[in-house]
Structure to design on (220 residues):
């Protein structure tokens, strides 16, 4: 229960909004956003081991997991239960979210937020940059996406908070701590409307050889 109490501030953020409002659309600087997107992009093959906790409605889940990341934009997330059984496998190739047949669930973030869980700024292709703000060590990027808004907040070049507001739905990612190379030590994804949450606590990061192409299609 301690870990779930620890993320109450994120839930409060989703309800009340941030103390500082989004950047004004008149301050959009595309080169600032482009620099951040390039700096946070995957740049080497990595294998990441983590502990995870999840919530879907009244159900709670825990276990170990493995993430595999490779440039340019390829990632795979595997969640295992306490007995080593596979709970969930999902892969990302760019913005293409790939799941085994029949797999779905509110704990699976949309592609831009799944990338955010890994510390990567990768807005959707239809996102329009409408505001940027740089002050002291903090940088903010503000996008319009369809009928919603997507807001990234970085501290000293590392992604810290992401909010995605859509009509009737508000999603968020909160990142804490640091593990090299440029990965958060802890990531929390929340979808309050669906009563869903996924939390990762990283334990080990290894640089590895490139992965075989078939791992980016789970369930095949």
């Amino acid at each position: 229960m301690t870990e779930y109490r620890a993320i109450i501030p994120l839930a409060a953020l989703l309800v009340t909004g941030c103390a500082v409002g989004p950047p004004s659309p008149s301050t959009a600087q595309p080169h600032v956003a482009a620099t951040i997107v390039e700096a946070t992009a995957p740049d080497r093959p990595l294998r990441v081991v983590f502990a995870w906790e999840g919530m879907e409605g009244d159900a709670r889940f825990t276990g170990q997991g493995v993430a595999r990341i490779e440039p340019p934009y390829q990632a795979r997330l595997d969640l295992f239960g306490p007995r080593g059984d596979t709970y969930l496998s999902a892969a990302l190739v760019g913005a293409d979210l790939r799941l085994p047949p029949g797999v779905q669930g509110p704990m699976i973030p949309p592609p831009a937020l799944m990338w955010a869980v890994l510390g990567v700024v990768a807005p959707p292709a239809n996102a329009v940059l409408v505001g940027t703000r740089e002050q002291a060590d903090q940088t903010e990027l503000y996008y319009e996406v369809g009928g919603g808004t997507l807001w990234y907040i970085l501290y000293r070049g590392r992604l810290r908070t992401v909010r995605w507001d859509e009509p009737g739905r508000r999603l968020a990612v909160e990142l804490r701590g640091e593990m090299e190379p440029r990965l958060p030590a802890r990531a929390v994804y929340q979808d309050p409307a669906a009563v869903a949450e996924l939390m990762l606590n990283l334990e080990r990061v290894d640089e590895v050889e490139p992965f075989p192409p078939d791992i980016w299609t789970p369930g095949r």
Q: What stands out?
A: The CA atoms of residues 150 and 164 lie 4 Å apart.
